Amino acid sequence: MSVTTGLCAVSSHAGRQYHFVYELKNWTEARSYCREKYTDLATIDNMEDMNTLNSMVDLSKMADIEYKHRAWIGLYDDVDSWRWSLSNRTFYTGSQAEFRKWQTKEPNNQHSGEHCTEMYSGLWNDINCEARLMAVCLNITGSDVTFVLINKTMTWTEAQKHCRTNYTDLASVRNMTENEMVKQLVPAGQTVWIGLYRDSWKWLDGSNSSFRYWHDVEPNNRGLNETCVAADFSHSGQWEDWNCDFKREFVCYSAQTEAEGPRRESRRCQLSWRKQADGKVFHKVEKKTEKKTKKTEL
């Protein structure tokens, strides 16, 4: 028997295809380029994806600039995603959930982790959630809405847990009247937590991937407004937060459609031809024109 062995492409699972673009653009320009040419700036789900990017990158093609070998990816800090701890929409009517009383030039995300809100003299400021402050809880009984001052210091998360355990939630402030009610509860010169916080890092394409690959001490918002993310391929692609106006290379991805087929995996296949009794492998097929049938001579 004569045997020939080859390789076949067999489907495994659908995935993303990454594309390095060795052109210098700011994060917004890179996003526009990726959306025009591919799908979006790169979303990264796990270390397997990072290993793929590390194996693909060609450092010799990256520009010799300050902080070189870094490329934009699709993770960003959504600084406008403020929401209330009490998420029940029936508690808010009209635009009440969007009421804000920020201090001038706030929120400013001045330091890393300023994702929670404090009130001082009736004005609001974004602050790191690990700060320890007093808190104001919200208590709802039927149609009655009251506010309660908690006269001990806690982190924002601890305050949220305390309010949810003993009352309804951390304070939601829906209008100027309620803002004044909370202000009157707080001793002069004191600062308190209220229930406003923001979602932080998100993927451009809306992916819910929670995978993160930050470099040590990152994100640090060191230069202020560092709301975009670059992978440092001189350090295994670890991530850093950067001001979005920096120009650098970037990584796009294209979503694999059903028509294009999924990622390929190699599988071995066997092809074989069997010799017949007369020693031949192939035989001529004669056509019977009367019946228009085919017959193979054995």
UniProtKB/TrEMBL annotation:
Molecular function terms, GO-annotated: carbohydrate binding
Annotated SMART domains: CLECT
Span of domain C-type lectin: 13-138, 147-253
A Pfam family matched in the record: Lectin_C
Entry keywords, A to Z: Disulfide bond, Lectin
Tagged with keyword Phosphoprotein: no
Protein name according to UniProt: E-selectin CD62 antigen-like family member E Endothelial leukocyte adhesion molecule 1
Organism: Larimichthys crocea
